[in-house]
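Re: the request from the purification team.
They wanted to know what the chain is likely to look like in 3D before they choose a buffer screen. I agreed to run a prediction and write the result into the notebook, where they can find it.
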Amino acid sequence: MQDWLKVAMPKGRIYKQAASLMREAGYPIFEEEDASRKLLIELPDARMQFIMAKPVDVPTYVEYGVADIGIVGKDVLMEENRDVYELLDLGIARCRMSVIALPDWEPGTHPRVATKYPNVASQYFREHGQQVEVIKLNGSIELAPMIGLADRIVDMVETGTTLRENGLIEQQVIFQITSRLIANRVSYRLKNDAIQELCDRLQAQIQLTR
């Protein structure tokens, strides 16, 4: 299996669209229900092994070389800042990173921002000359302004439904998010033919769907 392509594939939100794109590009990747029960899945016909990972872990697996390539959201790449090649914008799992608050928000004396993305948030407010205390949370970020933990939050927004249901509004969009194909720097040299073929086939399929 030394010459197989090892792919870090995110579980959850991105998987369905990523797997569909790969199937359309001619790779016999498995359906979502078949992927949910295994951590390592081999596709001998394609000479590929898939590592089923939490999205936040994909860049780590790729940087350290246990995966040759991976699929990951731009939000995770920005937050983790791993030493990997970003090869291709897959154009899937579209959403945005935004600053969010209650409608009556006003600047306070000691502003606090809650987020799953402390590095992204800190950089954004620093670049905009705002001094804030960033509080890292792992889930239910929308609760923070509702219970007084933070004045604002920085989080991903897809449809905005959850925000509206909880009485929150977007103040600013920080950046748009899509999923990207990334590669380990050494693997990109040693397995360049296989990786480039995958890029070309995915790129051709992306062009067809635009």
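For the purification team: The chain is about 35% helix and 30% strand.
Please add any questions underneath this entry.
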